[in-house]
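anyone seen this seq b4? input:
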Amino acid sequence: MTWITLGYRTTRALRLFTALFAFILLDSGAHLHAQHAAPPRQVIVAAAADMEPVLTAYTPLFEQKYGVKLKISYASSAALLQQIQNGSPADIFFSADFYFPEQAVAAGLTLEKSPEPYAKGMLGLWTRRDSRFKPLTIDVLSHKDIGAVALANPDRAPYGRAAVAALKKMNLYANVSPHIVQADSVAQAGQFALSGNAEVAFISRTMAVTAQYKTGQFVLVPQSQYPPIIQTAVILKRGANHEGAHQLLNFILSDKVQSDLETKGLSRVQ
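predicted toks r here
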């Protein structure tokens, strides 16, 4: 048997090489683990307040189907547009009307040349179950002793604009205007009535069909009394996930979702 004696320098070099090789293996494993543990892709969504009940219902279905997480912020359509103009990284903007998305298009902030209609909204009047109005009807707005009436700021929220239009067309604005309490969004208008800080509130039907608001009384405002609430969406240039934004918009426009919109408080755009 032949024994080979290694010198000190050779042994030291082998040790260094072994340590370096082990480090490379560990680093590669850590890199692969990091890749495996990387968070899923996401779509940043700016959505009008009336869409919260709708997207809450559909988000799990979308995320399961596409493996894409939705990061959603809700506010009035005007507030969302302002955020987008100020540099928001949102991928898609779901507005409660066509006016604010058209402004985004005009400013060159969108991929599309025109907003995409995805639903038609419905306006109604809501009050708590313990309200003195039983049953609740639109006629309560003609009462001289009507309490606070909450509605979204008509300059910032489409449902607020529709409420003012309806009041004027029904010749009720003069009676109601001294009692109006303005909210930042339709969701906040509902909260005013829910908490008792307003006697009645103009809210979207999407809110009225949720468990929280089913505890009260709701009556639709005849759609002939206000301009159609055509809700539209745009995909934003600044967003980092155009593919995911397109997937979400197409999902909302799919027959599966559109045929189910009525149960969520909206109607499909014909």
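The CA atoms of residues 52 and 119 lie 14 Å apart. The longest helix spans residues 8-37. kinda curious what u guys think
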